[in-house]
Amino acid sequence: MHSRRKQRTYTVKEKQVAVLLVQDVSVEEAARILGYPRSSVSSWSKQAEKLLEFKGPKTSKTLKGQGRKELFPGVAAIVTYMKDVRRDEK
Predict the structure, then answer these.
(1) Structural domains of the chain ordered from first start
(2) CB 30 within 8 A of CB 22
(3) What is the pTM of this model?
(4) Which Pfam families match (predicted)?
């Protein structure tokens, strides 16, 4: 049986280094130099602009913004308003 390679997660800093290297050499060469999967380096190079403009902590694994979007934005403000109204009624 073949042992599967353990799936790794890379920090934003590691991804930025890979993207900068891809600008000088090919995706395949950058992947070989850094020891990262070619497909990962390729997808990061497609996200180059977002990765290089990222303002958060460099140790973060993602660019943020994942997850389900709220169906009703501002629900928290409405709940706060309702609580204030109920509190004033007492």
Answers:
(1) 7-61 (1.10.10)
(2) yes
(3) 0.64
(4) HTH_23
